[in-house]
Design brief:
Layout (H helix, E strand, L loop, with lengths): L7 E8 L2 E8 L2 E6 L14 H13 L5 E5 L16 E4 L32 E6 L4
Parallel strand pairs: 3-5
Antiparallel strand pairs: 1-2, 2-3, 2-6, 4-6
Length: 132
């Protein structure tokens, strides 16, 4: 399975450019768990910045003048977890050469560690500065 196109939203944050990264698969929206499996490196490590930057570049439709910040798993800037929202992916890790979310390494659809909880949702803050 692949992420087809760039079917994602940034949701559940304090504004439209800050929040959980949610993807659409088979007509249903779900969150991405950032929790790595036991003994594996955390997606919040070195590659998280590249993953967040790709999400933000795709969100704004630009390759330049875009900045991204990975929000910590325990961020308090989110409203309560929406009823019915489930995790559909985990461990999304994009490299600097990836052009779409489909290019990134990730778990198989629905293969999410049981330890995933709302605090583990992969979340970003995107900014665009046309004057930089």
């Amino acid at each position: 399975m692949r992420i087809v196109g760039n079917s994602f939203v940034i949701g559940g944050g304090i504004n439209y450019t800050t929040g959980r990264v949610e993807v659409c698969h088979a007509g249903a929206w779900g969150a991405i768990c950032g929790q790595a499996g036991a003994g594996e490196p955390s997606p919040y490590g070195d590659d998280s910045d590249a993953t967040a930057l790709l999400v933000c570049r795709l969100y704004y439709g630009r390759q330049d003048q875009v900045n991204a910040v990975v929000l910590p798993p325990d961020s308090t800037s989110f409203p309560p977890w929406p009823e019915g929202l489930q995790f559909v992916l985990s461990d999304l890790v994009c490299g600097e050469n990836d052009q779409t979310l489909s290019d990134c390494d990730r778990s198989d659809w629905g293969q999410v560690p049981s330890e995933c909880s709302p605090e583990n949702a992969f979340a970003v803050r995107c900014t665009y500065n046309p004057w930089s």
